């Protein structure tokens, strides 16, 4: 009788493990959808964009302390900067890391930024795309540029949301198109 109880307990633990794994797999890392007229900003929508027409979302992270999205607003070099970056760890067999990063200055945590449009070109306001395995960095500049538009800002709950798009070039003259960028995050 005792061995039957042990088998049941082992089967129950395995079922819980399998359901937990399926829950992590089913997690949507970027549910933000600004085309949905009923979308509600809550700071948990995440970030996503298209890179040359292919959807790019942050990787699901299961390691404690690990992140795939970095978002902050802070004073740095006497400039209030917004920093948004996310990483997608590609699936096998390539395991190519892709990063999208945007930095803008002249942001505020005390007054609404809704309606602000930031031009992404040269530093300090710029967009960047990085393919880690190829050590290839694509950056905006005077010729290849884009915009970031703030659509939502909840000062009391530290939530910021908006859209972005840009073209970026590497030192070999190859161009990457970042389109349909959307974010809904807490800072």
How would you summarize the topology of this molecule?
Elements lengths: L1 H25 L17 E8 L2 E3 L12 E8 L2 E11 L7 E9 L11 E4 L5 E6 L4 E4 L6 E9 L4 E11 L5 E12 L1
Explain this structure:
With 187 residues, this protein is mainly β. The chain has one domain (30-186). 13% of the residues lie in helices and 45% in strands. The chain is built from one helix and eleven strands; from the N terminus they run αβββββββββββ. It has one helix at residues 2-26; strands spanning 44-51, 54-56, 69-76, 79-89, 97-105, 117-120, 126-131, 136-139, 146-154, 159-169, 175-186. It has a six-stranded antiparallel beta sheet with strand order 2-1-11-10-9-6, with no helix packed on it. It has a five-stranded antiparallel beta sheet with strand order 3-4-5-7-8, with no helix packed on it. The protein is globular.
Number of separate strands: 11
Shape: globular
Strand count, sense and closure of the main sheet?
6 strands, antiparallel
Pick out the low-confidence regions. Answer: 10-28
Q: Helical percent range?
A: 10-25%
Number of folding domains? 1
Mean pLDDT across all residues, rounded? Answer: 84
Structural class: mainly beta
End-to-end Cα distance, whole Å, is 55 Å
